[in-house]
Design brief:
- The structure is a single chain.
- The protein is mainly alpha-helical and about 350 residues long.
- About 65% of the residues lie in helices and about 5% in strands.
- The strands form two sheets. It has a three-stranded antiparallel β-sheet.
- Helix 5 packs antiparallel against helix 10.
- It is globular.
- The protein starts with a helix and ends in a 14-residue tail after the last helix.
């Protein structure tokens, strides 16, 4: 009976999370259609959705699994470029843009999941600072590999070259007169047909929440959290450490890949240098400020900290200083016990699940 009651509470909390996201989407859509939002803020809607998904997916690794990953932008880049290639090469086969976008996001998620397996198998044997450093290295390696990639398509299909020497050009792809270059090495993806939409970002956020919340409240999720809390105790009761750690890590990478595909198809030009160490740290900041294991916190932090630099643009040279000060103040506030107790009195919290303001 106690377990049944806990499941009902988790279901209510999950429903409240979905409802909150839906209400936010409706409100923002009405503001956009009414012309209330400026063009700059309207242009941030899709990137905000992408960063929300990135924060949620990284929270699965850092907050739920308890492993520090500093290469999350690498999985986003894999999803971005594989999604762009899929969307561009399928223009004639799938002329309906929303369907092509959905296919591109699925392709991005699959390729990022493969990258997650390749990275996760050797990396997840490490712990703590060692794991963080190696994931950082893998993120940079992925970015450098994409910088060497040349991809185009013509009537004969895809043409792919790896320009490790730096001497090859698009002309070396051997395409016919109908050929179109998609990825041009260090220039990145150019001439991309932008088909990303705010509605697609909203759906991706809901799908991400559905996957993560149901995972955490499942038997596999409890196994993952048991590994986080006490690896030795979890192993002693027969939990397969490698299996569950890899499952959470790969799922996190796949969600980041889907977000990357949406992000890539929002820009006509995109270079691999966009997905560098700074991007991984930015997403980690979202997770830390929002609270480890707190999905609502990750959503709010990603939204606020993505919009804040644009909102402070009128301060010109001082906007990044103000941004840094806000980060410090928020960090101090979120680690203040008196403020936490006050929030608990205002907002009832539920222990033992996501969406409650506490780490699960």
């Amino acid at each position: 009976m106690k377990r049944l009651g806990t499941m009902k509470k988790a279901s209510k909390a999950n429903f409240a999370t979905y409802l909150g996201v839906i209400i936010a989407f409706v409100v923002v859509s009405l503001l956009k259609s009414g012309g209330v939002l400026s063009s700059s803020l309207s242009g941030l809607l899709i990137p905000v959705c992408c960063y929300v998904v990135m924060a949620l997916s990284l929270n699965l690794t850092v907050g739920v699994l308890g492993e520090l990953s500093l290469g999350h932008a690498g999985f986003m880049s894999v999803g971005a470029f594989s999604g762009i290639v899929a969307a561009m090469s399928l223009q004639e086969a799938i002329p309906f843009a929303p369907l092509r976008l959905a296919v591109a996001m699925v392709v991005g998620a699959l390729f990022a999941a493969v990258a997650g397996v390749i990275v996760g198998v050797p990396v997840l044997r490490l712990r703590g600072d060692y794991l963080a450093i190696v994931t950082l290295a893998f993120g940079e390696i992925i970015k450098d590999l994409l910088t060497c990639l040349l991809v185009g398509y013509d009537s004969n299909g895809l043409h792919i070259l790896f320009n490790a020497s730096g001497t090859l050009t698009v002309a070396d792809l051997g395409m016919d007169e109908t050929g179109v270059a998609i990825i041009k090495g260090a220039q990145g993806a150019t001439g991309t047909v932008t088909i990303a939409t705010f509605a697609a970002g909203f759906v991706l956020i809901l799908v991400t929440l559905f996957i993560i919340l149901n995972l955490v409240n499942s038997r596999s999720g409890r196994a993952v959290m048991a590994i986080r809390d006490n690896r030795i105790a979890a192993e002693s009761v027969g939990i397969n450490i490698t299996k569950y750690k890899l499952m959470a890590f790969v799922l996190s990478a796949a969600l980041a890949g889907a977000a990357g595909a949406l992000y890539g198809l929002n820009y006509s030009n995109l270079a691999a240098s966009k997905f560098n160490f700074n991007t991984s740290i930015l997403v980690l900041v979202f997770v830390v400020l929002g609270g480890l294991g707190n999905m609502w916190g990750s959503i709010i932090a990603a939204v606020v900290l993505t919009i804040l630099p644009e909102a402070l643009r009128e301060f010109a040279d001082y906007r990044m200083l103000v941004y840094a000060i806000v980060l410090i103040l928020v960090m101090l506030a979120t680690n203040n016990d008196q403020l936490k107790n006050l929030l608990k009195k205002i907002i009832p919290v539920r222990k033992g699940g996501l969406g409650d303001g506490e780490r699960v």
